Amino acid sequence: MTFVSFATFSIILSTLAASLPAESPADVFADESSTTCGHTCIQAADFGSQLDQEHNLSVVGASTTGHVSPSVDAFDALQSGWQSSYAGSVACEVPDSVCTIDRRSADNITQAEFERVYKNKRPLIIVGGSRNMHRRPLFTRQHLLKHYGDLVFPVGTSATLYNGKGQKRAFRMALSTYLRMLEQPYRQDDDQLYLFEWAPNLADEAAALLGPFDALPLFDFGHRPHERIIAIGKTDAGIPYHFHGQAWNELLFGRKRWFLYPANSPPAGGYSDYRGQDSWVRDNYPKIKEAGHMPHECFQLPGDVFYVPEGWYHATVNCGQTVAVASQVQSNDQLQSTSDMQLFSSAMELLGKDEERAVELLESYLERVPNNDLALFHLGRMYGAMKLYDEARDMLRRATRANPMRVDAWVYLAIASLELGKPNIAMQHIEKAIELKPPKGAESWSFIYRVQEAIFRLRGQAELARQAADNHQRSRRDTEVYRQVQTID
Asked: Nearest 10 degrees: CA dihedral of 138, 143, 145, 147?
C-alpha cells in the first residue's frame, strides 16, 4: 500500500529525516566535536590568565580546600547582583533537604572510590568542591554588564534549547539586553529564555572567561578550555531531559534542582521535546510521586560540583537567577566514553549518510540499553525507510511506551500503520500527537497534517483532505518563522 498523496513510506521518512535533527543530544551544539580551535583557544587561555592577574583573583572567596568559605555567603548577598527569589515556582518551592543523591566532601573521597562507585554508575555532588569560587567576581551581574554587556550571545528557550527541535537558539542579543530580560517579573508557564552555550560559539572575550576554570581532579576528563559551557538563567529556566557523555556542572550563583534517571530507565511518564522541565515538575511529578517512580533528585548550591554519569537522563530547573560553568565528554571520545555511548553516538553521526550501518549500531546499542526511547525512535523510523513496516511499527510502539510524550514517535507510528493498511489506527496515533500540543511552528505539525490528508483521502473525505492540505501549507510557513534567528537590540 502507498499513500494517495505522497508516494511511499520511505519517501516520507526521508523527507522527515531531512528536517529532523540527525544528531544525538550530546552533539546538538555547533562544531563542538572539532578537535582544534586554533587562535581562539590560545587567545582565550592567555586572556583568562590575564583576567585572574588583573583582578587579583587568587584569594577572593576561596579556601585551600576549595570549600565555600563564610565570606562567599556574604558575597552572594551583598555583591553578586543576582536575584535569589523564586517565589511562585512550583519546581523550586521545596526544601533543600529533598535529596536522593550522594553528597560528599572533596576531602573524604578518593579517586579510587570515585572510579569504583560513581564513574558512569551513579550521580554525585561534591559539596563545596569548586576550585573556582575565587573567580566569582568575574561573573557578578555588574562585572558582566561592564565588560561584556555589548557582546552578542545566542539565546534559546529552555523547552527546546537542547533537543534540537527547530528553535534551538531563537535569538541573538547583547548580553545587556538579556540581563535586562532576566529582571522581568516571573510568570509561570512562560517559556523562559536561557543562555546556555559552548565557549566556541562565544566571542573570544566571553570564551576567555571559561578558559582558566579548573576541573575538580575527580572529574578531570582531559577537557580543553574551549569545551566549557556557560549557563545564565532565571527561575524555571533549565534544560529538559537529555543524555550525553559524563559531565560536571559547577554552580557559581543561585540554586539548581536536578532530576536524573538511569540510562535504561526513561523518565517516568515521559518527557517532551517541546516543554521545559518546570512543566514536567508541575504536571508529571505529582503523578509519579504517587506511583513511586521517582527520579534521583537534589538541589545544587553555590560551590557544589555535580557529576552526571554517561548516558543518564537528566534535567535541571533554576531557582532564582543562576550562573554555572559546565563541561562534558564528547560521546565520540573513545578514551572517555564507554562502548554503549560510542555505539549510540556513532549511529547518530551516520544518520543520513550510511543508515544501514546506523541501523546495525542502534540494534547493538539496544541490546545493551533496550529502553532508550531516542534509540527506539530512530531505529523505528529507519526500519520504515527500509520498508520493514512490521518492524517499524513494533519498534515505534516500544518508543511510545518508553516515552509517551515524544510527538514524532506517534507521527511515525501513524505512518507505519497507514503502510500496513490501518488508517483508523493511524488516525488514533495522530490524535495522540495532537493531544501533546506541539507549539505553533513546530515541524511536527507539518507532518501531522500530511498524515491526516492521506487518511482523509483514503476515506473519501475530500473536503477534510483539502483542509488538512491547507493546514500543511500554513504550518510550513509557520515553521519557517519558528526557525528564524531573531536579533534583538
From this structure: -80
Q: Which helix (H) or strand (E) holds 478?
A: helix 462-483
65-117 confidence digits (pLDDT tens): 333 333 444 455 457 899 988 888 999 988 888 899 999 998 999 999 999 99
Lowest mean pLDDT among 14-23, 32-41, 378-387: 32-41
* Strand ranges for 131-218 from DSSP E: 152-157, 171-174, 193-198
Query: CA end-to-end span of the chain, whole Å?
Result: 53
| DSSP code of residue 237 | -
Residue corresponding to grid cell 517541546: 274
- Residues 455 and 40 sit within 8 Å (Cβ to Cβ): no
Tell me if 227 sits within 8 A of 199, measured CB to CB: yes
Give the whole-angstrom CA distance, residue 172 versus residue 475: 24
Helix (H, G, I), strand (E, B) or coil at 230: strand
pLDDT at 452 over 90: yes
* Whole-number Å distance between alpha carbons of 420 and 387: 11
- For the chain, the maximum distance between any two Cα atoms, rounded to a whole number of angstroms, is 77
Task: Indicate the pairing of strand 193-198 with strand 305-308.
Answer: unpaired
Predicted TM-score of the model (pTM): 0.83
